[in-house]
Write a structure and sequence with these properties.
It is globular and about 50 Å long. Helix 9 runs parallel beside helix 15. By secondary structure, it is of the alpha/beta class. The chain has 15 helices and 7 strands. The chain has a single domain, classed as P-loop containing nucleotide triphosphate hydrolases (Rossmann fold), CATH 3.40.50. The protein has a 7-stranded mixed beta sheet with strand order 3-4-2-5-1-6-7, sandwiched between helices. Bound molecules: adenosine-5'-diphosphate and magnesium ion (MG). The site of magnesium ion has 5 residues, from helix 1.
């Protein structure tokens, strides 16, 4: 059972959209998927029209030990896709958890129990994927997701300052790996809200690929209003607009995620990502801030050093490179 934490301490970068639609795409491909809403704002739960009344099981009640994951699971209209929704109390959970012993591993124990109980009963895992949607912070809720996970997918918006905060994020992942969860790895970077008409977006994507070779998914998720509209209809993109580019993007992302199971990340690349500072985050920000006429901001010039060392030539639209 893969356990994946969708992380970025910035809000509005596409974490929830990715968790919902990647989860839906994997379920449509025949996998059993459990999404866990760990954001007190409950966007994931709302996106899939799940309402949680007071005292009903939720990620909050799992965290405070009142319910098991099994008890808190809600089916969705997509076959194979279940959700542990957020209850209204989750915003207070960080305070309540703060006084508990081993407060950072409450969710891990719940997921372990969920997995072990299923193996004991049926000889099989309860799902192929558990995916955590994190809040826009690196507090105790995200920490619980990181300790319960084995993999981190970083959702990034392909825009100015995309890499700002990445050093801190990778440092937190490294610390969690070192002290709490030796299995943890960053196994994917999902470029979100990608507008390939914008030179800046193309440059950011090219830079990302050169900073983190082998880690950025080939399919960048394009910006489309359908993805922004789907939540207000309580639907994933596959129900709301199955023929739009957003549905195709998330279906392709899901194919890559499944393909990772046959092609694990090489050890060197993985460690490089965990220990490396994103080398030119400031340089990127500065380059992106220069006027369009500046030769330094052309995709080739901005990436020539890193791209050549990685053997990757800049391309006109790096979304499929
Ligand atoms: P986060 O969970 O990181 O805060 P969201 O997934 O909620 O980010 O996305 C922030 C906003 O951007 C939401 O209104 C969402 O509907 C919208 N959005 C996300 N991805 C896309 C996209 N590819 N195209 C258009 N709008 C998007
Ligand atoms: Mg969110």
């Amino acid at each position: 059972m893969r356990r994946i934490c969708v992380l970025n301490q910035k809000g509005g970068v596409g974490k929830t959209t990715t968790t919902v639609n990647l989860g839906a795409a994997l379920a449509r491909a025949g996998r059993r998927v459990v999404l866990v809403d760990l954001d007190p704002q409950g966007n994931l739960s709302t996106h899939l029209s799940l309402e949680v009344g007071e005292d009903e099981p939720s990620s909050y009640s799992v965290l405070v030990g009142e319910h098991s994951i099994e008890q808190a699971l809600r089916r969705t209209s997509i076959r194979g896709l279940s959700v542990v929704p957020t209850g209204i109390d989750l915003s207070g959970a960080e305070m309540e958890l703060a006084t508990l012993e081993q407060r950072e591993s409450v969710m891990k124990r719940a997921v372990d129990a969920f997995e072990n109980e299923s193996y004991g009963r049926t000889g099989a895992p309860p799902a192929e994927y558990v995916i955590f949607d994190c809040p826009p912070s690196l507090g105790l809720l995200s920490l619980n997701a990181l300790v319960a996970s084995r993999e981190v997918f970083v959702a990034l918006q392909t825009e100015f300052l995309a890499l700002q905060g990445m050093t801190r994020l990778l440092e937190v992942v490294r610390l969690v790996k070192q002290n709490l969860n030796p299995d943890l790895k960053v196994t994917g970077i999902v470029p979100c809200l990608y507008d390939n008409r914008l030179r800046l977006a193309r440059e950011v994507l090219t830079e990302l690929r050169s900073f983190f070779p082998g880690h950025v998914f080939r399919r960048a998720i394009g910006t489309t209003v359908k993805l922004a509209e789907a939540p207000s209809f309580g639907q994933s993109i596959f129900e709301y607009a199955p023929d739009c580019s957003g549905a195709r993007d998330y279906a392709e992302l899901a194919e890559e995620v499944v393909a990772q199971e046959k092609r694990p990340v090489t050890r060197g690349a993985e460690e490089g990502l965990l220990v490396a500072e994103p080398p030119k985050a400031d340089a990127l920000a500065n380059a992106a801030a220069r006027p369009a006429a500046s030769p330094v901001t052309s995709a080739g010039a901005a990436t020539s050093t890193t791209a050549s060392t990685q053997g990757a030539a800049p391309v006109a639209d790096p979304a499929r490179s």
